[in-house]
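Cross-check.
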Amino acid sequence: MLAAPGYALTPTPVVTPSRTASVTPMVKKSSRKALMPTPTVTAEILAEEADDEEEVSRYRWVAPASADECRLIRCAVNAAYQGDGRPDGEAISLFDLAVSKRFGNDSATGEGWVRFSKGASTGDRADVLELRVARVTYSEPWIQCQAGRFDLFPHMTPNSFFGAYPLMGMRRVDGVLVILPAFFKFGVRDDKSYTMPPASISLFYSPTFFPDGATRIDQTQSYGAAQARFRASIGDVQVGFRANYAKSRETWFAYSAFSGVPAYSLALEAVVRRDYSATVEYGVQNVCRWRKTNVVSAGLRAVRVATFGPFSIDDVVLEGQLPVARAGSNPFTGGNDLRPPLGRIPQGAWYARVKTRLKALILEFHVTNNQDDFTLGRLVQEATYMHLDGLFGPGLEAEGLGVPFRSRSYKDPSYLMRVGVEF
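Predicted model, tokenized:
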């Protein structure tokens, strides 16, 4: 008979107690009193702990009923209204169709996301058809490559609304992204228990940042970006750091990240118990004019907050942005170097979001005084010699719903309400 590992083969003796001999060990009176348990106190402590656990679990967050992760097709239907208390608001209906396919055990993945949207009217024709994502991904333990159209914003910044300053706050881009993991770690034992990606070096290239109808794929509109990131663990806190760098090939706008000189940002994120996070990002969009293009943003976030019966609080976000140098000559912060009397001094901006859920029904509320500072969407015709047909580029978008979100002024906040389902 073989013994289990770590155990000896010595047989266990059988002890038969004598009828006259007592098996009670000889313990002094004082020692016996110290060794005796106190069941009354222990029961009270256990009862208190049980009450505390019941109180905590009563409002513990409950995840929504999710679809099978292996499904190829996912859909979302949303109805939204945006306004600022004035009669001229905007009501839109949106239908999203997303397809994802991983080819067996291979490392290749294909993704597509199409959005149909229309404003409130009696017509049935969709006003806008958008190709939001068309991405091919090849992933190995030592490299990941993405090509096509995809959202680069969450890769550049830990914020949810403000940030990604070396790319002027752009979200969806067309280009190629290469991620090279770095295998050094700082106190990290298990990568699966962390929400932030592993330490890595990333390289990105795009042939153009111009809007539809104005693109030229001749390298004159191209730009590139690079990122280095790492993380460390301090108790229950995960700390992540990102350093971003970007540069365009040609000089297009002197006060922007597409000026032909480098732009950079430094971002820091701290996550506590995977549910609470604090973020901050400092950016400079032109190192030669850093005193007129620098900005800082910060935010707080809580996810998986609580559930009260059928009602759940899924996500709460609060962020702010502060221009460090308030220059009246920067057209991407409201300034005007061509016509100084028309210029405006940038001010602080803020954004708040609360995502709740009534069973499977998503109820979301956003509010902001954002003016699209430090984005391409801030540029106006009066501040540039270039002819603009509407907005030159995108502004900031509400996270989750993914629609442009801007107020009339710093003093007149706008709100956005969303009702939808995902399946």
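The chain has four helices and 16 strands. The longest helix spans residues 39-58. Passed to J.P. for a second look.
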